[in-house]
Amino acid sequence: MKVIKIDKKHWAGGIEKSRSAYRLFGPVMVENKDFSDFEELNAGEMPDMTATDTRTSPKSICFPPEEVMMEYSTDETRDDCNLMRVPVKDYSPRAVIGIRPYDAAAYLIVKKNFDTPEYRDPYWCDAYAACTFIGLAVNEPSRLDFSTSTNSGPFDESGLDVLLVDMGGHYFAKVITEKGAAYLKAAGWEEAAGDGAEQQIEELKVKAERMIQTTISFDRIKEKSIMELHGADFWDDAAFACINCGTCTYVCPTCWCFDIQDETKGKSGVRIKAWDSCMYPLFTIHTTGHNPRETKVHRVRQRFMHKLKYYMDKYEDGIMCVGCGRCVRSCPVNIDIRRVCQSMNG
Ligand code: SF4
Ligand code: SF4
Fold first, then answer.
1. Which residues, given as ranges, of the chain have pLDDT below 50?
2. For 86, which of 35, 118, 210, 240 is 20 to 30 Å away at the CA?
3. Residue 328 contacts by C-beta under 8 Å, 6 or more apart in sequence?
């Protein structure tokens, strides 16, 4: 596999050069806050390549918290009265720079939901097709990272087009796809790395994987029946402290649930796709007033059963989690998916 060497002296110039062909996204420090998040980079703005973990995941680049799906008007003087129109969208090429490998792998999980033989979400799929993922390997995983347990890892290439590895004064850029090669060319980074680059990357990968402090096991969940897990006696304890704030679902790169709402003002309106959460009581309430997930125990059980059992049974491809640790870090009452997984597997 081809490896390009990018001297950090040429980093900013290359990023700027690539702007002529790509919209750029990357981690940036949020103003007056002590965290970074993925945003579109303004002219002259550089991705913060030192950001170890963004507060929320980069799923919002293809799946915004709120997105207008359609517009309409009930004004009878208009030719398009009562017709739904899809607004003009910008699906020109996007480069997502500095995405962490497990967050890119999460896109492959989400793709299973939004891009299926039966149903295709055009908003997500068209945005995803426009993206080139220029990932940054995690040389020093955080203490909450358990990505090596989830078929991913700090150097996982599965969802990436390029894997960047920080070597101090330069980056090595491992070219994974044609899309990745095209981005590097657009940035003007074409100097081949010398012999031994792949070996150096491999050594850093092994070192980073060894630094990961926690693991999870889910090998026995598959053989358990849904009813056995559903009726297990640990759910009351697992859910006891939960305040159903939904934070865990909003920060998660693999949570894909959304709601569709119409907002009308006068004679015009929009149909919006907006993030939703299985942790909210309104998520499953019926128009009759009946709610099949009436209590927080029902909702907490649903979240973990979906991630660790239903997904596994349906797709036979591991669990719906890449081990980024965000939900563990952000939960205000310290509910930890690793502990719940242990209970389900035990
Ligand atoms: S972040 Fe914690 S408290 Fe909030 S909904 Fe998730 S598990 Fe419950
Ligand atoms: S469930 Fe938690 S650890 Fe797993 S991918 Fe989502 S936020 Fe990350």
1. none
2. 118
3. 144, 334, 336, 337, 338
